[in-house]
Design a protein that fits this description.
heterodimer, A: 107 residues, mainly alpha, Helix Hairpins, 3 helices, 0% strand, B: 170 residues, Four Helix Bundle (Hemerythrin (Met), subunit A), 2 domains, 6 helices, 68% helix, globular
Chain lengths: 107, 170
């Protein structure tokens, strides 16, 4: 079965690529806000998997994958609000968002 | 697999790549908006209209604006002199590439087990917003209440964390 005949494989590969890009962003950038951007991309890649499996799965009328994606979107929005609030609070104390300089708890 | 899918997937991946590689933080936030919009189009291509429009409302409308606000409030738009990448960037890049290789290998070697391998394309599931509302108020009512509680506590928590501390108020 090649990707040309099963569209689910295409969506899964795109989701894997987006997840890897988000992970690379979260692991390599210095700015805390860009690390959060990487995490948002990873969450979105997971949502794409949920929707793709819902669409091509055996029982789409049960709405399971769709509901999981909707709840995941709500939780990700809450996570973004709290995460960016934390970045602003840290910036107020240390006047930087550079993660390489946040080493105060290093022993 | 249509030309539309490849165009939208290319747009999303290009937006995501730009969001993690561009130097200016504001440009990264704008590229992130493109990636989110591309993902919303992928949801619409998968006949998930409600999730697609929720994605546009929540991500393109709210999260992207929140990121831009945070960048401007922390003066993160100034590009640092000593590079935008962490000192251990090579390790992170190798980890991410390894994880993509494992995921792609797993997907390509489990094609016989994936649903939709029957050959003939399945008809689009007929799901109306009414069905989603009925499911949210019936089978998924407890998760819905928990999400409402979570959003309320996240709102209050974010305000308290980011609020100015008064001098000497202990």
């Amino acid at each position: 079965m090649t990707p040309a005949t099963n569209p689910l494989i295409g969506y899964l590969l795109v989701a894997a690529l987006l997840f890897a890009i988000g992970l690379a962003g979260a692991l390599t950038r210095r700015n805390a806000i860009l690390v959060l951007i990487g995490i948002e991309l990873m969450l979105n890649a997971a949502n794409l998997n949920f929707i793709a499996f819902w669409r091509y799965g055996p029982h789409p009328e049960l709405l399971t994958g769709m509901m999981f994606a909707i709840f995941s979107i709500a939780v990700a929005a809450a996570e973004a609000a709290v995460g960016l609030g934390l970045v602003i609070a840290i910036h107020r104390h240390t006047h930087t968002t550079d993660l390489d300089q946040m080493n105060r708890m290093k022993g | 697999m249509s030309i539309v899918f490849f165009a939208i997937a290319g747009l999303s991946v290009a937006g995501a790549l730009a969001a993690v590689t561009l130097k200016s933080t504001v440009h990264c936030a704008l590229a992130l908006t493109v990636a989110f919009a591309g993902l919303a189009l992928l949801f619409l291509e998968l006949d998930a209209q409600f999730a697609g429009f929720a994605q546009i409302l929540v991500y393109v409308g709210a999260v992207a604006i929140l990121v831009v606000f945070a960048i401007l409030l922390t003066r993160g738009s100034e590009t640092p002199k000593d590079g935008v990448y962490s000192t251990k960037w090579l390790l992170g890049l190798v980890t991410a590439s390894g994880i993509f290789a494992v995921l792609a290998w797993a997907v390509l070697h489990s094609t016989w087990a994936l649903p939709g391998a029957g050959g003939a394309p399945k008809a689009a599931p007929q799901v109306t917003v009414m069905d989603i509302g009925n499911a949210l108020m019936g089978r998924y009512v407890l998760p819905l209440e928990i999400v409402a509680l979570l959003l309320t506590s996240a709102l209050i928590g974010a305000v308290i964390v980011a609020m100015h501390e008064k001098e000497g108020a202990q």
